[in-house]
Write a structure and sequence with these properties.
The protein is of the alpha/beta class and 246 residues long. The protein has six helices and eleven strands. The chain has a single domain, classed as Rossmann fold. 26% of the residues lie in helices and 26% in strands. Helix 2 links the parallel strand 4 and strand 5.
Length: 246
C-alpha cells in the first residue's frame, strides 16, 4: 500500500508569537518549528502502523522552503520511507492543495492522509480541496482507520454518536485525535533519517486565492473578577455588560 502523508511546518506551541512592524508578516526569528501535531501524531503514525501491518511505503510531502527540511527529517526519523518538498511558500490553502495534487496525481497513492487542521491557522481546508482536485472521496475528522482488501473502514464523531463509513481506495482522509498515539523518534530512526531520500521538486502553477491583510494578537488574559455568592445578580449584570464571546 502506497500512502502519502501531508505535513505542515508550524511554530512550537510554546513559541512567543510576534509580527512585523506593519503586522503583515510572521516574525520567525528565534521560533522553533515542529511538524503540525495533527499531521504527526495521528496521520503519520497511523500511516506507519498500516505499513507495518500490511507492508508498503509511506511518503511524506511538504510545501515549503528549504528551512523546513529539519522538520521533514523528523518525519523521516519517526519512520517515513521517503519525503518530497515542493519548493513553494505555503501561504494559501488552495495553492498548497494544488501543489500537492499536481505532484501526487500520477503517483498511484492508495491513501492520502492529512491532519485535520494546522495549529497555526486552524483552517481545516487542504484535505477537502486536495480530494476535489484529485477527484477522490474524502472523509474528514476521522478518529479510527483500518484497511482490509483495499477497503477503508473509518470512524468519525458526529453529533450524538460515531459514524462508521466504508470506502474503496484510493481516498483522502483528515486525521483527528484518536487515530493513533504519538511516537518519539529513536536513535536508529534519527540516524537513518539523514540518508533517506528527500526529493525537492519545483512548484507547479497554482492559484493563490487569498492574501494576508494583517495579523492581530489576541488581548490575552485579563484579571479575574470574583463575585460574592450572596450577590448573584451582580454576576448576571456583568455577563450582560462585560462578558465577551471569543
Amino acid at each position: 500500500m502506497k500512502i502519502l502523508v501531508c505535513i505542515s511546518n508550524v511554530p512550537d506551541t510554546t513559541a512567543k508569537i510576534s509580527f512585523s512592524a506593519d503586522n503583515t508578516t510572521f516574525n520567525a526569528a528565534g521560533v522553533q518549528f515542529i511538524i503540525n501535531p495533527y499531521d504527526e501524531w495521528f496521520a503519520l503514525v497511523r500511516a506507519l502502523e498500516l505499513k507495518e501491518a500490511q507492508g508498503g511505503n509511506v511518503t511524506i510531502i511538504h510545501v515549503g522552503a528549504v528551512e523546513s527540511e529539519a522538520t521533514i527529517r523528523k518525519g523521516l526519523a519517526i519512520g517515513a520511507d521517503d519525503a518530497v518538498r515542493i519548493d513553494a511558500e505555503p501561504n494559501d490553502a488552495f495553492a498548497v492543495a494544488e501543489q500537492i495534487a499536481a505532484y501526487a496525481k500520477d503517483k498511484g497513492f492508495d491513501l492520502i492522509l492529512v491532519g485535520k487542521e494546522t495549529i497555526s491557522y486552524n483552517g481545516s481546508m487542504v484535505g477537502a480541496m486536495l480530494a476535489e482536485l484529485m477527484n477522490l472521496p474524502y472523509v474528514s475528522l476521522a478518529t479510527k482507520l483500518d484497511v482490509t482488501n483495499s477497503v477503508a473502514k473509518i470512524e468519525h464523531d458526529i453529533d450524538g454518536g460515531i459514524e462508521v463509513l466504508e470506502c474503496a481506495l484510493p481516498l483522502v482522509i483528515s486525521a483527528n485525535k484518536g487515530m493513533a498515539e504519538q511516537r518519539i523518534p529513536n536513535m536508529k530512526g534519527i540516524m537513518s533519517a539523514r540518508t533517506k531520500p528527500l526529493l525537492v521538486v519545483p512548484p507547479a502553477a497554482a492559484d493563490k486565492l487569498t492574501s494576508i491583510t494583517s495579523f492581530t494578537l489576541t488581548a490575552g488574559r485579563t484579571d479575574c473578577k470574583y463575585i460574592d455568592a450572596a450577590t448573584p445578580e451582580k454576576l448576571i449584570e456583568l455577563l450582560h455588560t462585560e462578558a465577551k464571546v471569543i
